[in-house]
Amino acid sequence: MGKIVKVSGPLVVATGMEEANMADVVRVGEQRLIGEILNMTGDAASIQVYEETSGLGPGAEVVTTGAPLSVELGPGLIENIYDGIQRPLEVIREVSGSNSLPRGVEVPALDREKKWAFTPAVQPGTRVVGGDVLGTVQETESILHKIMLPPRMKGTIVSIQGGPFTVTETVAVLEQEDGSRVELPMMQKWPVRVGRPYKHKYPPVVPLQSGQRIVDTFFPVAKGGTAAIPGPFGSGKTVMQHALAKWSDVDLVVYIGCGERGNEMTDVLREFPELVDPRTGQSLMKRTVLIANTSDMPVAAREASIYTGITIAEYFRDMGYAVAVIADSTSRWAEALREMSGRLEEMPGEEGYPAYLSSRLAQFYERAGSVACLGSDEDRRGSLTAVGAVSPPGGDLSEPVSQATMRIVKVFWALDSSLAYRRHFPAINWLNSYSLYLDSLKPWYDEHLGKDFLQNREWAMAVLQEEASLNEIVQLVGKDSLSARDQITLETAKMIREDFLQQNSFVDIDSYSEYDRQARMLALIREYDGHCREAAERGGDLAQMFSIPAREKIGRAKSVPANQYMDNYANIMVEMDEEINAIAEKGEEAL
Ligand SMILES: Nc1ncnc2c1ncn2[C@@H]1O[C@H](COP(=O)(O)OP(=O)(O)OP(=O)(O)O)[C@@H](O)[C@H]1O
Ligand SMILES: [Mg+2]
After folding, report:
1. Residue 319: pLDDT over 90
2. Is 225 in the pocket of ligand 1 (CB under 6 A)?
3. Of 159, 249, 457, 578, which one has the greatest count of Cβ atoms within 10 A?
4. Distance (Å, rounded) from C-alpha 31 to C-alpha 573?
């Protein structure tokens, strides 16, 4: 047992801690506040305390638990809301009857009373290894929770029984190689700072379908990939992340509200239960785990929150599910890291962030991937996609958190305040965003959307780049001096921006756009562009071409109901061909 010698905000130094180890969870003071040892010098431990430390002073006792910071994994995770160290916020509020988190309350992360119907998947006598599925629990209508043998264990099942059990009751008994027997409950624990093991990683070859056109068509992220959403204040980071959480075609979403305003989490809590998962017809909460460490909660737990979140995500990945982790915002997380580093009086790096900022960020994103899951079955695959928002002060991407993130992630959706100001949403700048997955996803696109898809995408990107350079000329000499070709380029670019890329998250019919629809929409615009160029050569009048009825219909294409778009778009194809051809013919007569 040690004694406190110094308290500095969330940092506590205690001596007499020779029995403790680095990374141990400790209990601090009479209130038994939860802390974690950051480093040890001799018998002195520097401890980050996850709860408010006011009232704590020198002389108070510190006891180590001897265990690292871990999460509880088992039925009951889904639909739950946890803080950064997996304390169930709703339950705590019920127990304490107060709205602010009381200190030192001990409530287990998984409900100890609730019984879950366990169905065995193996018989006594079966040889099992870590990761093997022992049985299942239908946790929600959307998720079949697979109860797995914890990693690194193996042996023979001696007994196993179905029926209603709590997470700590024994459902099976395992005889290990050395003859010893272990009772297995449904719950397992895992230290949050250690990635859960898998057999091997696969290259990510399937896109995560988000229903957001700028993402899916322009800058896709693969399932198992990493992406960042950098953007200045109010540019749409949170709206974008909510859209990804709502619409991504994954089995489970872990949403980490990390240092953001409390009301943004309230939005999630209010909105998600009402939203319907398009694939299961169930409430979206039935596939969501929320981690909330809002700006009004203790800063240290914010540091832990992204690891807590990604560990829960890995656990579901291990079952063979596609999981997405969404963190808003990693800049707030980095600020927590900076604050602790400052209190530890470490040598500051750039802008006061510790030198290990980028390695810590990497430790988060590295845990993404498309993997062969642990276990003796051959083909269980899971994926973990990680998406983090970054809020660079003033939108300046040269600051340390943006730079470190950019070196790690493979997709960059750069939000732009000037686009947001013009109400072009999502305000993702197409000129400085990128995806490094296009090559690995190409076979998928070719197979599912046809070879045209990537060609049309490249064409559209080229048109937008040309628009950017033409705009410079227009500013100098005016639009009228441009050739017919260039004027068509500008008109087409406008269509790509307004009719395709702009997508309002708050208009139901357009908040989600499936891949096939995106492909057809872009094909429409390219077809229009091609017809216009041909007609212009035949002497057709540009102004007339730009105002044909079919052009307007393309503008409204995104609001056509999902069950009508195929016919509707096919009709537009025919109409625009006729309308532009008529203009070309008039042109030829006039020549
Ligand atoms: N896709 C979208 N469709 C429609 N409106 C949008 C979209 N994205 C953003 N907006 C508008 O921009 C506002 C700000 O967006 P949001 O809260 O996501 O910004 P933020 O980058 O998270 O800001 P902060 O830096 O304050 O966290 C929204 O309230 C909404 O009005
Ligand atoms: Mg936000």
Report:
1. yes
2. no
3. 457
4. 71
